[in-house]
Amino acid sequence: MTSSSFPHYDLAIIGTGLAGLAAAVCAVNRGLSVVQAGNTGAIAYTSGVFDVLGAIPPTEDGDIAVVDAPFAALPRLLAAYPGHPYAVVTPEGIRAAFHEVLDFLRGAGIVYHTGDQRNFAVIGPAGTIKHSWCVPETIMGGCTAFAAKAPCVIVGVERLKGFSAAQVVANLRGVWPQLRAAQVALPEHPGGEVYTEQAARMLEVPQLCRAFAEALRPLVDGVQYLGLPAILGVHRPGDVAADLSRQLGVTVFEIPTMPPGVPGIRLKEAFEDKLPEMGVALYCQQRMDGQLPPPGEPFRLHISGQPTEVDVLADHVLLATGRFLGGGLRGDLEGVVETVFGLPVVQPETRAQWHRADYLDPRGHEIHKAGICVDAQLRPVGPAGELIHPRLHVAGSLLANQDWIRMKCGAGVAIATAASAVEAVAKACAHGDGAT
């Protein structure tokens, strides 16, 4: 088969994490033809909460700062970390990108709420509090209950690992006196260990949801809110939460469990179900590789992995492969390498500088800021700022100079840079700046 007979797309997206999937949504919305391939990556480990900016780690002479107003804090972040990916997007662009992706998710039955100018205080699986701007509707009740310190019971499920109601209450009781813990068995469970996905799919069955409500009913006396681990269905979880709330007469909400958990499965299945319906040629659990083409020629890319072996052409490529967990970066004895095109990686000069002596050093570790440097159009550049390829773009956690775990900005970086890169591709396509 000659290359001229291969399927030809406007954009190939390498990676199916949050950045890649957000890019696919934005690309289809702009009329681009899209092929996408990648492994599940880190999306299965998400709590379902989307952060814009939750903390500013200390510089060499500063203290860590918890962020209450993420957009107001962006200038402070960029003053401390001028190479952060937020330097190439705008606050308005971040908001617009979020709302575009949230509209897609709403159509898939997953509804989110954003905090306007401020972060919500979100209850974590161990009873700690994190600050996030974008929260699923099933978790919002917990934010409201915590803010009001309203009477609430946190309920665990017997034999379910990764969540302890007693631990949540023990860590929050000091600031939330009207909080208590309880535990119930999952009705009609066959026995043995309970898994979060299994429980979530069981609760999508109306008969089992009613039986679960009856098990919970004795626990709601004197409370206004009831918190559960995130098991309220995989599809349309808001409907399951609303049904339980109606049956019990209290507001039922979810608390994320330890990863991997149901919120990540919800997102994964929503994207994988809906994107092909929108026209994306989506190859899940597949690898896409290629080489940088000469000027004027399309990218020729090979998609591999059982049972599929496909060659495609694309005028533009968006690299959204993540870092080490997603497989976008790999460490070896010589340093850190980018795994698809061999792009230059911003990284410490030696392996000895990857980590600080203290594992819990509040400044974090330099290896967590390794990645690809880009220009204003999210195109990779070399050490001297030279453009690597005019039709290659990078988005998400693969970008350099950000420690998304410590800064609590992972979803914001993923969604905003994906949308910005796609906008650059769409403009290039509109001007005929593709392969000839």
Give a verbal description of the structure.
- This protein is an alpha/beta fold and 436 residues long.
- It has 2 domains: 3-106 and 264-430, FAD/NAD(P)-binding domain (3-Layer(bba) Sandwich), CATH 3.50.50; 138-255, Rossmann fold (3-Layer(aba) Sandwich), CATH 3.40.50.
- Helix content is 29%, strand content 20%.
- The chain has helices at 18-29, 74-80, 91-107, 137-148, 165-172, 196-202, 206-216, 237-248, 262-277, 404-407, 410-430; strands at residues 8-14, 34-38, 55-56, 65-66, 112-114, 120-123, 129-132, 134-136, 152-157, 179-184, 225-229, 251-255, 281-284, 287-290, 299-304, 310-319, 329-332, 335-338, 392-394.
- Strands 1, 2, 13, 14, 15, 16 and 19 form a 7-stranded mixed sheet that branches. Strands 10-9-11-12 form a 4-stranded parallel sheet. A two-stranded antiparallel ribbon has the order 3-4.
- Helix 7 (206-216) packs across helix 8.
- The protein is globular.
- The mean pLDDT is 93.
Brief overview:
It is built from eleven helices and 19 strands. With 436 residues, the chain is α/β, with parallel strands linked by helices. The strands form six sheets. Strands 1, 2, 13, 14, 15, 16 and 19 form a seven-stranded mixed beta sheet that branches. A four-stranded parallel beta sheet has the order 10-9-11-12. It has a two-stranded antiparallel sheet with strand order 3-4.
